[in-house]
Amino acid sequence: MCVESFERFNGRRSGEGKAVAILSHGFGTDQTAWNALRPWFEARYDVISFDLAGCGPQGAQTYDFERHGSLFGYADDLLDILDELDVHNCTYVGHSMSGMIGAAAAVARPELFERLVIIGASPRYLDDEGYTGGFKPQDLEQLFESMRANYQAWIAGFAPMVVGVEDSAVVADFSNTLFQMRPDIALNTSRTIFTSDLRSLAARVSTPVHLIQTAHDVAVPVAVGHWLANAIDGATLDVIDASGHLPHMTAPDDVMRILEQRLAGPTR
């Protein structure tokens, strides 16, 4: 890339620790999604965050329809940032699409990752024989058509449904970052996410993985979390007794308690 990756993706670095933690957000948000958890990480880690391609104030400039037509393109962005900053053995925390982006990057370059914390991620959103992804093809076509027809109206219904709890501040924040995305980029990103199938990747992850999920998530059924926990050797799964797809924003105290437990000891 002609511009340094960390700067290009609006990178931010802060914190007091020596060990590095990477915070990578999910679809429709930007790095401000970590605001509630960032102080916890900053007290313990050298914290690195950035905006995914297509997201944040520079989203339209960072998105490439060909490169980011696959989650592996985002994984390449992540690896570019880690190489540029000379980061090794990091703790990677990824929400939703960033969970599988981190898994893909860790399979390609395992030496860069000490462990992965994956929050509300899915390797495949479509149902399949013997697999519950939560969506049928007609569900996705309806989703894409709604986005195409009236992006603003779609956000008005999508944001509170995904937040999943009565939290007007989080709904407003999520709506604002969705509005910040250019509609054609948002539509293409959603197609990339919802039509992906990275199940074959799971068995190849050798990095220790901690999975976190809510018990009721409209985007990712709890069955997906159990599938990933079974597919990834040695993975742990913590299910929060809560609703919504954004627990790092709506239930940060619950997430912090899990982080305290899972990140305090050795990776294995």
TrEMBL record:
Protein keywords: Hydrolase
Keyword Protein biosynthesis among record annotations: no
InterPro entries: AB_hydrolase_1, AB_hydrolase_fold
GO molecular function: hydrolase activity
Iron-sulfur as UniProt keyword: no
Gene3D superfamilies, per the entry: alpha/beta hydrolase (3.40.50.1820)
A Pfam entry, by short name: Abhydrolase_6
Domain AB hydrolase-1 as annotated: residue spans: 22-256
Similarity comment: family membership: Belongs to the AB hydrolase superfamily.
PANTHER family given in the database record: ESTERASE-RELATED
Protein name (record): Alpha/beta hydrolase
Taxonomic source organism: Stenotrophomonas bentonitica
